[in-house]
Specification:
- The chain folds into 2 domains: 97 residues, no CATH class; 98 residues, Tumour Suppressor Smad4, CATH 2.60.200.20.
- The longest helix has 78 residues.
- It is built from 1 helix and 15 strands.
- The protein is rod-shaped and about 150 Å long.
- It is α+β, with helices and mostly antiparallel strands.
- The protein is 31% helix and 30% strand.
- It has a 6-stranded antiparallel beta sheet, with no helix packed on it. A 5-stranded mixed beta sheet has the order 8-7-9-10-13, with no helix packed on it. It has a two-stranded antiparallel ribbon with strand order 1-2.
């Protein structure tokens, strides 16, 4: 085969044609493209192979190698992106777990607070039932007192225009605003600021005691405020106010 004197070679980078003289000697030659200025190597084999075909084959091999390198780089970029997405998903999962744990802790704290409040209310109710804090008996079932020779009976004088006297002849006498639904032993009309079952006067044939049952407004006992559940001993001459009504405890 007659060898060409001038070879037409394609630049593997810019794909432009390059014309060069055939060195007619096998070996690897470094060429520089006059178009893009990039250098590349071309291997010349024996003279029996067409240098033109050889150059094109080498260019194809270089292009394939370049595509393989680009594919490998794209694969690495995809793997890095997948790794980053997995890390972001793991971080989001941890944040969700932390938020759930915080909500559970807040709910547990609220539950403990509710239980403590319930326990405190129960303790207050138990304290209200301690000795000296007697539950008054209902007015529908009065118990008459047994008079003794040494016991001095008392009465209440209620300011209703003029003073009205009420004898305390029961163990428990409930005093409150007049009401059909929940009547008291001593029902006082005309004072809407008084509770229907406001206080109880308790007698054990030794002492009289006043216990606050249900007072929307504080009970004023000798210029001292009493709240629901409070209990005090009575002596003749004590004064207390229910709503706007003055009441005096006196000897019967």
């Amino acid at each position: 085969m007659e060898l060409k004197e001038i070879l037409d070679i394609t630049c593997p980078y810019c794909k432009n044609a390059i014309r060069m003289r055939n060195p007619k000697k096998a070996g690897t030659y470094e060429l520089q493209c006059p178009h893009c200025g990039k250098k590349f190597r071309m291997t010349m084999v024996d003279r029996e192979e067409d240098p033109y075909e050889q150059a094109n084959r080498q260019a194809a091999e270089q292009a394939a190698a370049q595509r393989a390198a680009e594919q490998a780089a794209a694969q690495r970029a995809a793997e890095q992106a997948a790794t980053q997405r997995a890390a972001e998903q793991a971080a989001a999962q941890r944040a969700a777990e932390q938020a759930a744990a915080q909500r559970a802790a807040e709910q547990a704290a609220a539950q403990r607070a509710a239980e403590q409040a319930a326990a405190q209310r129960a303790a207050q109710q138990a304290a209200a039932q301690q000795p000296g804090m007697v539950n008054p008996k209902p007015a529908s079932k009065p118990t008459k007192l047994l008079r003794t020779g040494t016991f001095e009976a008392g009465c209440l004088r209620v300011k209703q225009g003029s003073f009205v006297r009420y004898d305390l002849d029961r163990e428990v006498t409930v005093v409150g605003r007049q009401s059909v639904e929940s009547p008291s032993d001593i029902s006082i009309a005309g004072d809407e600021t008084m509770s229907r079952r406001s206080v109880a006067i308790i007698c054990d044939q030794v002492n009289y005691k006043l216990q606050v049952l249900n007072a929307t407004n504080p009970v004023i006992f000798n210029d001292r405020k009493l709240n629901t559940g409070d209990c005090v001993y009575l002596t003749f001459g004590d004064k207390f106010v229910l709503g706007k009504t003055l009441i005096i405890f006196e000897k019967a």
